[in-house]
Amino acid sequence: MVIKFGTDGWRDIIGDGYTFDNVKKCTQAACLYLKKTNNSSQGIIIGYDTRFASDRFARIAAEVAIGNDINVLLCIKPTPTPVISYNIVYRQLDAGIIITASHNPPEWNGFKFKSSNGGSASQEIVDQLEANIADIDIQDKVKQIPLPESAGSSLFEYIEASEPYFNHLKNLVDLDAIKNAGLKVVVDPMFGSGIGYFKDLIGNGLTKIHQINGIHNPNFPGISQPEPIAHNLKKLSLVVKNGDFDVGLALDGDADRLGIVNDKGEYITTLQVFALLCLYLLEIRGEKGPIVRSLTMTNMIDKLAKQYGVKVFKTSVGFKYLAPLMIREKAIAAGEESGGYAFNRHIPERDGIVSGLFFLDMMIKTGRSSSELLEFLYNKVGPHYYDRLDVTIGGLDKQKILKRIAKSKPDYIANKKVLTIDTRDGFHFIFNDGHWLLVRFSGTEPLIRIYAEAEDPDTVQRLLQDGQTLLGIY
Prior knowledge:
The chain has a six-stranded mixed sheet, sandwiched between helices. A six-stranded antiparallel sheet has the order 16-21-20-19-18-17, covered by helices on one side. The chain folds into three domains: 155 residues, Alpha-D-Glucose-1,6-Bisphosphate, Chain A, domain 3, CATH 3.40.120.10; 209 residues, 3-Layer(aba) Sandwich (Alpha-D-Glucose-1,6-Bisphosphate, Chain A, domain 3); 87 residues, 2-Layer Sandwich (TATA-Binding Protein), CATH 3.30.310. Helix 11 links the parallel strand 12 and strand 13. By secondary structure, it is α/β, with parallel strands linked by helices. It has 16 helices and 21 strands.
């Protein structure tokens, strides 16, 4: 089979494409890249999530790295992706490998490769990894040394990665202020690697942390996948509403994404959350600097940037595009529609835990409830509404769908005039009022995603329906 990396790593179905042999190939490809670029002297960290056999896949990856004479730090338990990414920077390592399929359904697993800056592998690195995998397929050369023989050597060590990460966060946000604010917070780690992190960070003071779905379970019971979006957060919404909590925070399977439910039990969309976090940085923290956003992110960012005199840079979907631009432009934040947000003075990578802490700090600093914060934002930029429709493509012909929509070139969609069409990543229809519709193929799952942002919920739904019509899928 051909192994292709998507927007963040390679993912496939366990036992089908996702096998021990293919994880070995990916790891060998990463080792060859590090050796060729002379970036293998400091070693790598390998971590994993709570999915089925993730720990075993991680051990296999460690054996291959050791077989290539590369020092390995292997996480001793399931660990959030941002914690692993921070350890790369803190320990000055060459790279990181994370066994995770992030938000995908339970039958999936994945392989993420992180650069020395803690961020997602750039497209250039991905191209080299895929080329190396193709060579390995031909030559069938994977080096591997079993861990039991290496456990006592200088090449291998088990680590608990959270301590340096926790110490770093103390300098990033006032944890004591959050801990003693007296908030009532529900946390839903969605059975993933973020279990216990909020409680350990801010749960030993006046603020009370109530955790749901807080056991390791690779089946993710009760949810279709560990993605913190509205239809997966019904339990969280009910607990918040019925228990008189101030806010609900949800992490995806590897804790690099955040979902939020306000004190009324209402889901705050990922676009609203990123706009609020940018407002927090600009208004509350007084930070100045560019903001990087994906094409799927809200144009509320552009409006805020204009008010506060900062630049906005737009990219295709995926942090392999956002992270390099964030570093180059010294941006204060980067965000994409999936709920992944990154911040300066941290790592150029998504971090759901830091995002949640910043949101809580915004509530404290402004004295506003989680539901009142949206009014605070809309007073700045006006009301914006958003939704996304995921369409399973199954056996549908991808090329036919692409040709159909490319030929359509509509002047109006849902009675809104199309101003421009951006084809950098799918088909991004921008209307004369600044709102938009985007149709693109997912980089992580066999789906077509249809996104829309408009001035009211009804218009959003009409845009999504017309997006389906453009595809010829009903």
